[in-house]
């Protein structure tokens, strides 16, 4: 690790505070007498946080200052409506909870009054599969692998792979506009949604299932990214696709991140629509994919169920070569340096749980910015975070998604923790990153959502009349303001 | 004509009521003393209607019951803000007006109190072109051909071609979610919008310019389709692209519309993304493209700036052949039967002006529906409209756009007019069509917007809590309710 990151950890392995030693604030409200509600301390503890570093760290130290007062696990919409009715009458905040993988404080009942964590994972079924239209009606609490396990019997896949894939739910993806690692085209879950059904305190919000519409403002697009503030998503019709039968991938080396970025811009603007177009800077290539730190690495991949993708790949590589790219081979599937990266990528949600113990502070943040600003943006953000780190630690960058008009850069920050002061240290890094991203022209988040952690920058980023409109919309469907207060509005 | 449509017109050519014979209701309010406002009768007349048949017919007969009381033509945002402030203080409705090509009553001040038509066509400039990110900042009142004339100097195009292209504006496209005749992918202007700037009575609503974002509900997606009810769009950053250098097109014949539809479904689901994939039923192929009525006709086309499209076309035609498709040749550009269709298509906005004079009643309506429902949907809608026509006239269908999960069918209705009673006759057809579309599972509009004419079905189609949310959003930014009352909410 030292050779790669340039800093050493102190070698001390700290033990976490065990769950039974945690002292929880007593519940401020008793759960309603419903069989699917519980105030068990273990349930309250495991529904307090998401998976941000500051969440992991606080859990590690046994700090659970803002747990939900109880947890509800509705078995169906009927149960769910009973909770909402009770909560509205009792003035209790309702925080929807899917896989609990928010990295932005989206599921933490932070500084709320009495609250219930509404765990939706019992809504876990595929209700219909339409093999003619290639769509499926799926309940919101279903986990990624369960969805695909069901669809594989039909030869289909949702093909939406956020990094949290194994631990997160369809409803969570929709509420947060998750990114699913199609590098182009259907980058967000937004593009895969055909219709959404949600329960609001003022009734059922269910859109008509059609392949496209121009009937006024899109009802689905108002729920996408609503983060539980407008309604509780219970199911959706989503677009699925045949499992890919043809694949080609190559790991292309570039002499610098800048040269690689130019290649990605050219490929993005060529109309080839690669499924994978992930560019790692030299440090990240070294850290995750066996690079030696002298080159940037582009994982370029095409896939299709219908036809061989050679023509697409050939042209993509021609464009890469014209920007100084070199590669060893084109593989028909995964593996190679791309495979090494993928393994690291999917292990990350598990690995990160170890950071607190080993004294590593880690932050990842992501954004999107237009190509004309990218070079200056990258320099400004990297510089600002380096300054916040005080000369130690490492800042790397990759492109997670790419568009004709700009990339979605993803930054990883690793540094030696100030033991005992990690949350403050993390907050300093986060603040520096957020300020730099906003000032240099990015969005505060491309696919991690806003939650509570991004509010300071989100509030500055969004237009004021839009904020007022969103508040007006919320007041109309949630007049008591019980739905996930503190996120968005 | 008779041979094709199966009915004869009476041959009588009626003359329209000339503008100077029109008796307008006197203005109910005097315009503010601003140099860009006028209550000239000619201006009021030409800002009363859009281009629906019922608009043309009423204008033809000199019926102008609901003209705006005056017309304002702001030269810049400063002027525009003065109008909005004056209107809010005076309780006067503001109806934004771009090219005036609404076919759904979107620009008609129908049954409003005092009103001003806010003509935005003086906001007609390209403000910036970003050749690196492929984007341009364009004022909302600019017409389609003017936009492309400006961009051609940069080797770029917006490539958004609604049928009204020559007469309509960027702001109108955004407010109504116009379809631009990319058959797949960027079907609506929505997909080309990078950011929007609008003026509301509560300030400027301007989103950040980024290639993608997941920061909460999208502010742009709330303005897209807002039809002037939330704010007046003044400019937008839009995604542009290099002008295509490579093209291939073929006119493929199918023994029936159903076989052609199956071919289109297969092609849509193959991930080939044709730029043109327009299927005409046998009657429409005969009417517009030189068909003999025995075959359906698919115009299949691919285009790219970056690379030859042979591999794409070859596979598209293979799929067409597997569904019984035959063709004579693949052309490198347009022309042929596709060219004949395109000529008719672009002439249509002019031709339709003649319908009232020759005693023809005409209606076009469009929708989208999932593939699993399409066959039954097509039969139900065609049958219902035929019934409404009472055994005379013709109903044809084409696919205007297509998605992996369903097509966007476009219906054309032509019949002999009941002279003097055409508007009632048209209303009957419209009512039958709207009812059938909604009952059989379509959307009341895929790209013509809601306006005032589609309200009865739109109100039933949209979820009630969403309607309440939209009303709440409007109340927040337009508390006096002056912005285009009657559309959407």
UniProtKB/TrEMBL annotation, chains A, B:
Cofactor: FAD
SUPFAM superfamilies: FAD-binding/transporter-associated domain-like, FAD-linked oxidases, C-terminal domain
GO biological process: lipid biosynthetic process
Catalytic residues as annotated in Swiss-Prot or TrEMBL: 410
Site (Important for enzyme activity): 278
Positions annotated to bind substrate: 352
UniProt-listed PANTHER family: ALKYLDIHYDROXYACETONEPHOSPHATE SYNTHASE, PEROXISOMAL (PTHR46568)
Entry protein name: FAD-binding oxidoreductase
Organism of origin: Actinomadura rudentiformis
């Amino acid at each position: 690790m030292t050779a790669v990151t340039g800093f050493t950890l102190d070698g001390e392995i700290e033990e976490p505070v065990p769950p039974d030693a945690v002292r929880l604030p007593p519940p401020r409200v008793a759960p309603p007498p419903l069989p699917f509600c519980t105030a068990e301390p273990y349930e309250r503890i495991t529904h307090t946080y998401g998976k941000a570093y500051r969440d992991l760290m606080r859990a590690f130290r046994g700090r659970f200052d803002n747990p939900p007062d109880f947890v509800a696990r509705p078995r169906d919409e009927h149960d769910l409506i009973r909770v909402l009715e009770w909560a509205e009458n009792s003035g209790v905040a309702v925080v929807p909870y899917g896989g609990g993988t928010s990295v932005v404080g989206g599921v933490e009942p932070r500084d709320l009054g009495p609250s219930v964590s509404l765990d939706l994972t019992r809504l876990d079924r595929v209700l219909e599969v339409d093999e003619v239209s290639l769509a499926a009606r799926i309940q919101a609490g279903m986990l990624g692998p369960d969805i695909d396990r069901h669809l594989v019997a039909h030869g289909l896949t949702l093909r939406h792979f956020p990094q949290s894939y194994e631990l997160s739910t369809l409803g969570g993806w929709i509420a947060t506009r998750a990114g699913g690692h199609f590098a182009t085209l259907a980058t967000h879950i937004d593009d895969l949604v055909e219709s959404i059904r949600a329960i609001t305190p003022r009734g059922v919000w269910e859109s008509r299932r059609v392949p496209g519409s121009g009937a006024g403002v899109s009802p689905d697009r108002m729920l996408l990214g609503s983060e539980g503030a407008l309604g509780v998503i219970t199911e959706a019709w989503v677009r699925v696709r045949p499992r890919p039968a043809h694949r080609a991938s190559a790991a292309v080396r570039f002499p610098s991140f800048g040269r690689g970025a130019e290649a990605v811009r050219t490929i993005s603007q060529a109309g080839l629509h690669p499924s994978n177009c992930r560019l790692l800077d030299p440090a990240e290539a070294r850290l995750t994919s066996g690079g030696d730190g002298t080159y940037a690495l582009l994982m370029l991949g095409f896939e299709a169920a219908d036809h061989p993708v050679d023509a697409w790949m050939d042209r993509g590589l021609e464009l890469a070569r014209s920007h100084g790219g070199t590669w060893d081979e084109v593989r028909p599937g995964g593996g190679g340096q791309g495979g090494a990266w993928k393994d690291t990528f999917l292990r990350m949600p598990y690995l990160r749980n170890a950071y607190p113990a080993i004294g590593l502070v880690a932050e990842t943040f992501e954004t999107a910015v237009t190509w004309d600003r990218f070079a200056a943006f990258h320099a400004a953000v990297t510089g600002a975070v380096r300054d916040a780190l005080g000369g130690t630690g490492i800042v790397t960058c990759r492109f997670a998604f790419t568009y004709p008009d700009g990339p979605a850069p993803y930054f990883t920050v690793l540094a030696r923790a100030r033991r005992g002061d990690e949350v403050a240290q993390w907050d300093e890094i986060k603040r520096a990153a957020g300020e730099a991203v906003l000032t240099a022209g990015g969005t505060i988040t491309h696919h991690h959502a806003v939650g509570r952690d991004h509010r300071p920058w989100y509030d500055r980023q969004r237009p004021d009349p839009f904020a007022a409109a969103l508040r007006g919309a919320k007041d109309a469907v949630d007049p008591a303001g019980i739905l996930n207060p503190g996120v968005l509005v």
